[in-house]
Amino acid sequence: MNLNLDKNRLMVISFALSIGFWWYITGSIDQAVGVLVLIFIHEMGHYLAAKVKNLRVSPPIFMGPLGAFISMEEQPASARDEADMAFAGPLLGTIGGVITVALGVVLGVPALIGLAGWAFWLNLFNLIPLAPLDGGRISMAIDRRMWVLGLPMILWLLMSGPSNTYGTVVMVLILFNAWQDIQQRKLMQINYPQYFDVGFKTRIGYAVAYLALGAFLYWTVSNPMGLVRLLIGLGL
């Protein structure tokens, strides 16, 4: 019980410390708290998916410019389990962004629509097929060699995203971790090939889901008012 209390306390403390960074990036403490809440929703997707699979994980820990993560105390049994947990984060994070836009429309608060823009961009960024990003883990249920697409994608997103003040540092950290992950996966393919034994229908299903979510997020990022007009057109 004390251990769980410490983990929950660490989550709250890391959340509070991260406010300063996002306050600097967004220029508003309200937006900073909002971004972190939406990141929390994203991480809870991972957390809840892991719990469904009876895996021991910690509550989300926030890391300022690096977003947040959940610490896994045991590894998933297969690439499909890994992909399930990875996909749940951007899926729930995207739903949180859509709800935020809907609230902005209903309440007439444009700041909420702008806040959702951060959520959509961060979730799109996370779909890049390079570990430790979620896309790198989702790709394990499609084709582990999808990392070859990751480099041009990360360069494009970091150059065209809403902020690039810390982009170089983030890119270097991601690429360093991605290189380590690629080497580890090669060894796993040799020593533990059954981990990647995912059925053809599952691979196709994940490919369709990955592309669909990525396309929606790309649309929301490249056409910020498109979702607003869609929701209004639906009678919201």
Question: Main traits of this protein?
Answer:
9 helices, 2 strands, 236 residues
What is the CA-CA span between the terminal residues? Answer: 45 Å
What is the mean predicted local confidence, pLDDT? 86
| Topology, number of strands | 2
Rg estimate, integer Å: 18 Å
Largest sheet: 2 strands, antiparallel
Oligomer: single chain
Choose one word for the global shape. globular
Overall number of structural domains: 1
| Strand adjacency order, main sheet | 1-2
SS class: mainly alpha
H-E order: HHEEHHHHHHH
Low-confidence region ranges: none
Task: Please characterize this protein's 3D structure.
The chain is mainly α and 236 residues long. It is built from 9 helices and 2 strands; from the N terminus they run ααββααααααα. It has helices at 2-26, 29-52, 79-107, 110-126, 134-138, 150-160, 167-191, 200-222, 226-233; strands at 61-62, 68-69. Strands 1-2 form a two-stranded antiparallel ribbon. Helix 3 runs parallel beside helix 8 and helix 4 (110-126) packs antiparallel against helix 8. The chain is globular. The model has no long low-confidence stretch (mean pLDDT 86).
